[in-house]
Amino acid sequence: MKFNNKLKVLRKQFNLTQEEMAERLDVSRQAITKWESGEGMPDIDNLKQIAELFGTTIDDLVADEKEVEPRAPEMFSKELAIEHSKHYDINAGKANEINLLATDEEKVRVEVSSNDAKVKFDDHYNRLDITVKCKNPEATINIYMPKKYMDEIELGAKIKTLNVRGFEFEKLEFDGALKYLNVEECKGLIVLNATKCDVEAKYDKLEGGLEINTIHSTARVSLPYGAEYKTVVKGIKNQFVDAESDEKSENYIEINGAASKVIITER
């Protein structure tokens, strides 16, 4: 397989447009088009970046007789000891999946399934800033956090799936793009600020609140059969569908923003 065809195959395997690939390599879209059409070749620096982006080698990219196969990404890991409760501010960029997992350990550990991952901890005593960077949009990010020292969590990311398990927090606030939210064994308030995103949220048990702030979108919330909750409508032209509100319940689901709806199902 020729280089130009390998490049096109890899880009599509990673669900990248030419514009997105160009942005990650800091080149023009025209350069990507030229390489994929066989009208030119990237220089050695760009070849290194392409190999890192797709988890392969330069040799495999340029050898005509070899089929290109991305390497299984290495799991990058970094941790920090925690001695007291903190507000956690996480900037995770773009990835496929994030797993927020509560543990009994007195530390934060971040794992990223990407060969080029970078993790930075910026500790401000009562607040910990966590920055995760990687070029692989298909990466999985695991963030293990101490149950003992849990306050609030802010998470900014553009991802497909967010899994949250084992927490008792005051609030988890998400900002960005999201398709699926899965919540297990958690108690507290979750706020989703996901403009123009059709989010699907699934709870094993609703204990606390879920606030959805969005515009021109439809959110679907799946709850266990018999779940008790009250509904709260704010914003402009928002509505609930198939919701049985219990005004006495301490648990609640709120819709805010504009021209959006929440569909609630029980299973």
Task: Output the radius of gyration.
Answer: 21 Å
Order of helices and strands: HHHHHEEEEEEEEEEEEEEEEEEE
The secondary structure category is alpha/beta
- Tell me what portion of residues adopts beta-strand conformation: over 45%
Description:
The chain is 16% helix and 46% strand. The protein is globular and about 70 Å long. It is built from five helices and 19 strands. The chain folds into two domains: 60 residues, lambda repressor-like DNA-binding domains (434 Repressor (Amino-terminal Domain), Orthogonal Bundle); 192 residues. The chain is of the alpha/beta class and 267 residues long. Helix 2 packs across helix 3. The strands form two sheets. It has a ten-stranded mixed beta sheet with strand order 1-4-7-3-9-11-13-15-19-17, with no helix packed on it.
